[in-house]
Each structure stands twice: as structure tokens, then as C-alpha cells.
Amino acid sequence: MTHYNVGDFQNISNVFVDYQNLIPKHNGFVFKFIKKNNKFIHTFAEGDFLKKVNIPPSLIVGKTLHELLPENQADEKQSCYEKAWNGSIINYEGNLKGFHYLSSLTPVIVNSQVIEVNGTAIEITEHRKNTLKIQELEKLSLIGELAAGVAHEIRNPLTSVTGFAQMIKELSNDKTIDSYIEIVLTELNRINAIVNEFIFIAKPKENMKTRETDIKALVSHVVEFMKPQATLNGVHLIESIHFDQTLTIQCDPNQITQVLMNLIQNAIEATTDPSIQEIVISLKNRHSDSFLIEITDKGSGISQERQKRLFEPFYTTKEKGTGLGLMMCKRIIENHNGTIEINSQLGEGTTVKINLPMVFDHQQLQG
Ligand SMILES: Nc1ncnc2c1ncn2[C@@H]1O[C@H](COP(=O)(O)OP(=O)(O)OP(=O)(O)O)[C@@H](O)[C@H]1O
Ligand SMILES: [Mg+2]
């Protein structure tokens, strides 16, 4: 590795006027480089941004890109530097220690020769974050539109394929064909479930059919319904209801059933350790106008990093998961003016808390 001294470049840098004026005032920096022995060497660097990321100019001056940055980043910038050295003005985005900047390279040409390149950069971290948020929202709404379109197109052919597969099953006397058709039907059922989830995501509010519902009975019904599946996985479902009086609420019972089934299913899938086999589903009448449903497992738990992504569409860690389950739960609960939160400790387990109002404003729902 060749090292150069700051002094080696002072003459070149001094050719140019007061570069303090070039330094972008708010979180910017300027820099210069030359090409020597076929390498780009930084000859100057200064600015608030460098202070912010705690990189002193002395660390940059005299160094090549590859001495400063990880290889892939250095290679990328090297090609920008090369183009600037060939006489073009180049703009590119970079990032140092998680802070983003937009940089512009301007070649300095004397007697038709590039003798130095000036770089100016401004920080765009906030702008970058906002852009990402907008992209996320656009992605969601695009998914909604796509969901509606694709699901409708798929549903009709799917119905006829399923119908014919069932006919083949009924007509066949061949055990091998029967077993194949059984697989075809199972997979078709899975596609059907995904298509239905898509339709749901596209139009959850329009699909809501609310009525007075005995929530204690609904929870018991779901727990009973899920027990065989839990037993198959060696898991015991415990229903725990903390009050006596009947609790009648305004909700779409089918949608709330779906939410609970999804959450219990997730809890079962997370409980792989045969020594910890309990999942508790509790119903607590917390306030007079709202109540709490909790589903607690002592399964794998979720790391802090993964917790941030749980409600994203298609986020799954399962081979056969669609990653739409939690997103759909959140939509349904929010459409009921409720909240859903997930508390989890990696290696210890997970509690999902659903808070639902007894009566929710139906007018608001229509709006
Ligand atoms: N109780 C839980 N314990 C541990 N991890 C969980 C739990 N619930 C959800 N997760 C994690 O969150 C991810 C997303 O869950 P989600 O229900 O949205 O999708 P999925 O279960 O992967 O697929 P599906 O669409 O079939 O529900 C899961 O893949 C899993 O990594
Ligand atoms: Mg799931």
C-alpha cells in the first residue's frame, strides 16, 4: 500500500481559490482528488458531515478509495472517479456510517487536461428516509391493487380446476392416481386460501359484516376448533377467561375468528420445543369500554430486528408461509378500531395483545 503525505498535494490544492466557500454549510463536505501512478488519491477533505460521522480529514487525505472504504463501495466510487477524471461531471449517492450523502464531482481542466477533481457533497439521510417511507406506502397500495386484480383473474380458473380434480378423484379406481389427486387438491386449497387472503387485503372494509357477538363463546369456539391441530403438534391450548358476565360486542365474528386462528396457528408453529407445550389464550375485561385478548406462547420468540418487520406483507421465516397472516390480522383489528401489539423475547416466547372496543363507531367504518 502506498501512502502519500498531505504536503505532496498542497501545491495542486492551492491552485484553487478559497474552498471554504465551496463547503456546503449544513452537513456537507468537500474533497479533492488527483490521479497519480494510476491511483486516485484524495488531496483535500473538509466539512461538517465529516465531523458528524467522526472521520477527520487527516484520515482521508493521502488515501485511495480502497484504503478508505470496503471493497464493493470503493469499486463503485472508483468508476465515478474514473469518469470524472475523463472530463465528465458526475453525481452519485454514497453513505458513510449509515449517513447518506449526494455527491457531485467536477473535473478541473487546465490546458485541455484534467489536473484535479473537486467533489462537493450534501447530506440526504432524512430525505432518504422519507423516500423509503413513501416507497413503502406505494408498495402497500400497489399490492392492494394487484391483489384485487390478480385474485379475481385466478379465482375462476381455480374453481374449475378444483372441480375437475374432484371429478377425477370420484371417477378413479386407481390408488396411485387417488394419492396424486389428493396432493393436487391440498395444493389447490392452499392457492385458494392465498387468493382469498389477497381479496381480503384489497377490500377488508367492504367485506365486513358486523353483528352483536358473544365474544366469550367466539374465543371458546376458536380454541376448540384449533385443539386437534395443536394436539397434532404436541401443544396444549389453555383457555383462560377472567370474568363471568356475558360480553357482547359489535364485530364481524368471521373476521375476528380468522385473526385468532392465525395467531394461534403462529403460536403453534413457534412452539417446537416438546418440553414447553402450552399456549394460553386469555380474555380480560380490562375497561368498561374495551377488552383484551392475549395469546401467549413459550416458543421461539422473535428478535428485536425481526419484530420491526412482522406486519410487512410477505415477511415470513417459514418455508411454506405467505407472510400475510399478521398483516391481515392488523388490518382487521384496526378496522374494528382496535389495536394489536406483539411483545416477544428471543428464546422465551411471544405474547400478542389485542385490544378491542366493545362497540365501535360504525359510521367511522363506512367512511
Ligand atoms: N408467535 C410467534 N412466535 C415466533 N415468531 C412468530 C410468531 N408469530 C409470527 N412470527 C414470525 O412472524 C412471521 C410472519 O408471520 P405471519 O403470520 O404474518 O406469516 P407466516 O406465519 O410466516 O405465514 P402465513 O401467511 O402462513 O401466516 C413468521 O414467519 C414468524 O417468523
Ligand atoms: Mg402466520
TrEMBL record:
Pfam families to which the protein is assigned, alphabetical: HATPase_c (PF02518), HisKA (PF00512)
Q: Which UniProt keywords apply?
A: ATP-binding, Kinase, Nucleotide-binding, Phosphoprotein, Transferase, Two-component regulatory system
Task: Name the chemical reaction catalysed here.
Answer: ATP + protein L-histidine = ADP + protein N-phospho-L-histidine
InterPro entries in the cross-refs: HATPase_C_sf (IPR036890), HATPase_dom (IPR003594), His_kinase_dom (IPR005467), HisK_dim/P_dom (IPR003661), HisK_dim/P_sf (IPR036097), Sig_transdc_His_kin-like_C (IPR004358)
Residues of the Histidine kinase domain? 149-360
- TM annotation in the entry: none
Write down the EC number. Answer: 2.7.13.3
What topology in the membrane does the UniProt record assign?
A: Multi-pass membrane protein
The highest taxon in the source lineage is Bacteria
Family matches, as SUPFAM superfamilies: ATPase domain of HSP90 chaperone/DNA topoisomerase II/histidine kinase (SSF55874), Homodimeric domain of signal transducing histidine kinase (SSF47384)
Single GO molecular-function term?
phosphorelay sensor kinase activity
Annotated Gene Ontology cellular component terms? plasma membrane
Among its keywords, does the record have DNA-binding? no
- The top EC class, named as a word, is transferase
What SMART domains has UniProt attached to this entry? HATPase_c, HisKA
Where does it reside?
Answer: Cell membrane
Q: What is this protein called?
A: histidine kinase
